[in-house]
Recover the amino acids of this structure.
């Protein structure tokens, strides 16, 4: 089997916006001794490093869009939905929504793919365009994606790596 080489600019989807959960912790100190913590809206923007894996499966949907859904694990654990649209013989565009506890994160991506037998291999990048709840200020660009999908069932395993800003 030949090796698939992807340029740096074509590492794709992090479905795993996969991606994006703001973990909240609790103080081990009693309430009277706990330091005062500003509300989430008062926090300055912070960057979170992502290393995610997602296992997706196709959900029936009419038309030329492939609707995928599944679970992402890694830096965060959350549900993800992805709508893939094949735009040429070797290029896919996507929109995604990730729903971690406390909100959601949305974005878009693009990837190139090659096929070998029953499998396709993809690589590209995604951008986070916003969110709700704790993630209302989420953003990110050039979040890398790579993965492998079954061309018959459209089930996929993808890996996401990059950074998001909350």
């Amino acid at each position: 089997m030949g090796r698939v080489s992807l340029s740096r600019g074509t590492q794709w989807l992090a479905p795993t916006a996969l991606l994006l959960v703001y973990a909240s912790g609790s103080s081990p100190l009693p309430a009277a001794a706990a330091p005062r913590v500003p509300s989430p809206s008062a926090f300055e923007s912070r960057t979170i490093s992502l290393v995610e894996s997602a296992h997706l499966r196709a959900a029936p949907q009419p038309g030329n869009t492939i609707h995928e859904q599944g679970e992402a694990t890694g830096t965060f654990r959350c549900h993800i939905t992805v709508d893939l649209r094949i735009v040429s013989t070797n290029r896919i565009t996507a929109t995604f929504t990730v729903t971690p506890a406390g909100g959601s994160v949305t974005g878009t991506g693009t990837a190139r793919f090659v096929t070998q037998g029953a499998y396709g291999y993809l690589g590209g990048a995604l951008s986070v365009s916003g969110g709700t709840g704790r993630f209302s200020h989420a953003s990110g660009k050039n979040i890398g994606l790579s993965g492998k999908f079954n061309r018959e069932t459209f089930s996929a395993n993808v890996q996401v790596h990059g950074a998001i800003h909350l």
The mean pLDDT is 77.
